[in-house]
Design goal:
3-stranded antiparallel sheet; RNase_H2_suB_wHTH; 3 domains; N-terminal domain of TfIIb; about 300 residues; Rnh202_N; alpha+beta; 10 strands; disordered N terminus
Length: about 300
């Protein structure tokens, strides 16, 4: 219980510091048109479990049905130089501001990570029990990490000067995440489902379902047309990683009207490798290694 109060105390200190500096912060936020409002949640990142901001936002489909989506908040910071940003629509320059980006993320990555990282016993659980247990376990882990990282806090807890009584003892946003419709749909896509006598359902992570999902993403991402459509990101990564002295650009650029697109086995293997590495950035390290083995891709140690 002593460790459980650590996260709360540090969170209070961080909150006070944020309130003191929030009015002084300037920056630019880039976001999709579907992510203009919603609620921010602090959830474990799928690969590292580090607390990360996610926006839960609702959007209307073509059939006028409202569906919730999840967006990850990332920040582009330059530790050496201040950056300024020209906002053309406002005809305004934001000086010394950081760039924040909201990008859509598949909620199934978060669900897979939580189930794989915390609930590894293969037992079936109701959705509510599953996420409550995850919230409790991750809160304890985070509290213990904070105690080890902050000697003063560890010393205070060891002497009993701070009590955990009445303090928050679970990662509350994980519980909130469980109640989102996008989470319910994601769980059904990556978990085995068992009907219970009381009419409810129980779940456990299914690796076959998870790998089938990842295979679908990998197949799309590794296509030549995908790389051609993203020359500044995938295309550049491909060209930097090309293992031969020959020009790699024909394999990631549109052909001239009188020529067909060029491709070869080495190019296909490299695209597959790059696609797998991108997917792995949203998987726990151990699961990523299992998925690389599933694809037959060797990982450099």
């Amino acid at each position: 219980m002593a460790a459980a109060s650590a996260a709360t105390q540090v969170a209070h200190a961080a909150s006070s510091a944020q309130q003191a500096t929030r009015s002084m912060r300037t920056g630019v936020l880039i976001h999709p048109s579907t992510a203009h409002s919603g609620r921010f949640l602090v959830l474990p990142h799928p690969r590292t479990l580090v607390p990360t901001y996610y926006l839960s936002a609702s959007s209307s489909t073509s059939s006028s049905i409202s569906t919730d989506q999840l967006y990850e908040l990332s920040t582009l910071q330059d530790s050496k130089h201040d950056r300024s940003w020209m906002i053309s629509r406002l005809n305004q320059v934001i000086s010394s501001g950081q760039l924040d980006i909201l990008s859509r993320i598949d909620a199934r990555f978060l669900v897979v990570s939580l189930l794989y990282s915390v609930l590894g016993d293969g037992k079936y659980r109701s959705r509510e029990d599953m996420f409550e247990q995850i919230a409790l376990e991750l809160h304890v882990r985070r509290s213990e990490e904070l105690c080890e990282a902050i000697p003063e806090l560890k010393a205070r807890l060891a002497t009993g000067k701070d009590s955990a009584e009445g303090q928050q003892n679970e990662w509350t946003d994980v519980v909130v995440f469980e109640k989102l419709e996008v989470t319910k749909r994601a769980l059904e896509d990556v978990a085995d489902v068992q009907d219970l006598p009381n009419g409810e359902q129980a779940y456990r992570l299914s690796l076959p379902k998870t790998f089938a999902l990842l295979d679908s993403k990998h197949s799309t991402l590794s296509q030549q047309s995908t790389f051609i459509s993203a020359p500044n990101t995938l295309g550049r990564t491909f060209e930097r990683s090309w293992p031969h002295d020959s020009d790699p650009s024909p394999y990631v650029s549109l052909p001239s009207p009188d020529k067909e697109a060029q491709d070869c086995q080495d190019a296909q293997q490299l695209r597959s490798q790059i696609a797998a590495e991108i997917i792995a950035t949203y998987l726990p390290d151990k699961l990523a290694a299992e998925y690389f083995a599933h694809l037959g891709i060797k990982v450099d140690q």
